[in-house]
Design a protein that fits this description.
mainly beta, 3-stranded antiparallel β-sheet
Length: about 170
């Protein structure tokens, strides 16, 4: 078929490392009016498939590159913006920071000392972070063990030190 491309620029949209989330304009190739402002947006973060919403990757911004010269025409560190085309270009959404859901909850008669970001349930921790947890029993209580799945650690030790590479929930 034929399309009228007079006064139009080709915009290619892709993700790095992958096409993640629903973005505007959508992934792929589209014709855009030369000189017209185009609103762009992506979700702040998207869940990683197969993790039961236990891992997410954040949008680290975007880059608009000239298809002709390879030069950066514009960029932003947010998940929204506005671009204007005068030639064919590629918009790349950067998906950068992998985080995992973590929940560390003390049972009755105890507390948890941690270096984790926040201390409440369901806090997102950056992937690859070293997490240290120390069980602190109150007077009249004794630590018995951790409940939850965390391979490769001694669940009977009151002190845990591990690298977070997936969702973790411990009591």
């Amino acid at each position: 078929y034929l399309a009228n491309t007079t006064g139009a620029c080709q915009l290619t949209v892709r993700g790095n490392p992958d096409d993640l989330g629903t973005v505007e304009p959508g992934y792929g190739i589209s014709a855009q009016k030369d000189g017209e402002k185009i609103s762009i947006s992506a979700p702040e973060s998207v869940y990683v498939l197969g993790t039961d919403e236990g891992s997410q990757i954040a949008c680290g911004g975007w880059t608009l590159v000239s298809d002709e010269t390879g030069e950066t025409l514009d960029s932003g560190t947010d998940n929204v913006g506005e671009i204007e085309l005068s030639s064919d270009a590629t918009l790349v959404w950067d998906w950068t920071t992998l985080s995992h859901r973590s929940g560390f909850t003390a049972s009755e008669g105890g507390a948890i000392a941690t270096n984790a970001i926040g201390a409440a349930d369901s806090v997102w921790q950056p992937g690859g972070s070293r997490i240290a947890l120390t069980a602190v029993p109150q007077e009249g209580y004794v630590f018995v063990g951790w409940f939850g799945q965390l391979p490769g650690v001694d669940h009977r030790s009151p002190v845990l030190d591990f690298t977070i590479d997936g969702a973790v929930s411990l009591v």
